[in-house]
Amino acid sequence: MTSRPVIDDLSSFWMPFTANRQFKAAPRLLESAKGMYYRTTDGREVLDGSAGLWCVNAGHAREEIVAAIAQQAATLDFAPTFQMGHPLAFEAAQKIAEIMPAGLDRVFFTNSGSESVDTALKIALAYHRARGEGQRTKLIGRERGYHGVGFGGISVGGIAPNRKAFSGQLLPAVDHLPHTHDLEHNAFSKGQPAWGAHLAEDLERIVALHDASTIAAVIVEPVAGSTGVLIPPQGYLQRLREICTKHGILLIFDEVITGFGRLGKATASEYFGVTPDIITMAKAINNAAVPMGGVAASRTVHDTIVNSGAQGAIELFHGYTYSAHPLAAAAAIATQDLYRRDGLFERADALAPKFEAAAHALRGEKHVKDVRNLGLVAGVELDSRDGAPGARAYEVFVKCFEAGVLIRFTGDILAFSPPLIVTEEEIARLFGTVRDVLATVQ
Ligand code: PXG
Ligand code: PLP
Known about the structure:
With 442 residues, this protein is of the alpha/beta class. The protein folds into two domains: 20-58 and 343-440, Aspartate Aminotransferase, domain 1 (Alpha-Beta Complex), CATH 3.90.1150; 66-341, Type I PLP-dependent aspartate aminotransferase-like (Major domain) (Aspartate Aminotransferase, domain 2, 3-Layer(aba) Sandwich), CATH 3.40.640.10. It is built from 16 helices and 15 strands. The strands form three sheets. Strands 4-10-9-8-7-5-6 form a seven-stranded mixed β-sheet, with helices on both faces. A four-stranded mixed β-sheet has the order 1-2-3-13. It has a four-stranded antiparallel β-sheet with strand order 11-12-15-14, with helices on one face. Helix 11 links the parallel strand 8 and strand 9. It starts with 19 loop residues before the first helix and ends with a helix. The structure holds 3-[O-phosphonopyridoxyl]--amino-benzoic acid and pyridoxal-5'-phosphate (PLP). Pyridoxal-5'-phosphate binds next to loops.
């Protein structure tokens, strides 16, 4: 392969969720990747402690996935799925359905988590309308929730900067549960915190305020990821499920991060033993090798909508040009086969106690005010510098990258979510590098 000259003008690409001017003054460019490692344009190896952006669960450039995409590109590059179909779309949906919680076996394909969230919210509204309760239009999210960047997602989401500039045009009929993050009670919890199940009772307050007959759905991340790794208190998700069921409200779990092995099971729903009505997914669905997302709906939700219209009528006026794109579908099938063949969810489950121990070994290091974890996810919260929130974690992130380790950060919280193929030695290096860097940071 001929290698391209390294680009020296970075001005055209308007980068997403990036401090563009700061980045372009001192760029960090990745050129290739294999397994657990990235390689930078200046030839350095970087251990991937974040699975890209929580998405490359099987590790980078897996041969089976690469081959499936290459073969598909040469065989059927694109096929419409509006009033047409191609076999891999149905096969991919079936593979996903097989590992969803029992009953959630109808899969709608999208191209991202944001699109999955928009799709799930629309399905919830369409479901109530189809069963003659079209007045159920309110959507309940949660403070600090991240549901992508569509107008639906930022409306039910609870991250202030993501909403602020667009605040005049958010969805009108939305309310929010309180978040569950409380360091006074839960600092340094290993796994699920003991305190906080009662916060689910706030849903009863919201129902009393608006009346159940106006509420379509509740959407939460079972484990909140990008807002800084917030683990649900013991019993909390069970209680949300009970309250939703009692009032005929759909429960949507946004599993864009938690799906496909992150917690050592196919879904967080399975891990927690709580079954929602709808699951959103993306990222690791096909190891992020081609953009893809999806929504798994219960039979009841699906059948209510699909059986409601006249024969020959389109039941749901929704879809994307690239829904079930052949390359994405081929990658999804190969990825799901790989997860199963290599037992990667079980591997994550088995590694979780070691990962937990390595993360919590950071307790007592300079600046560390909390460590929290579940499965192969951990968050390390740092004290913020006076008047400069986020500056300390940014510096840790940059220094780790220079030391050959990629992590994520949000505000002053460091996030860890390595590919599920990570070894114990790599886990030790990941947290060891952070420990060394913390000692050098003011
Ligand atoms: N829901 C959840 C729970 C997510 O975590 C989305 C929806 C949106 O997915 P897309 O594919 O539209 O980005 C996400 C995405 C980070 C980070 O570093 C997290 C996400 C995306 C980018 C960065 O925390 N989560
Ligand atoms: N904008 C225009 C003008 C379009 O024609 C389409 C799709 O046909 C879209 C947006 C939506 O694009 P997509 O289906 O890729 O989401």
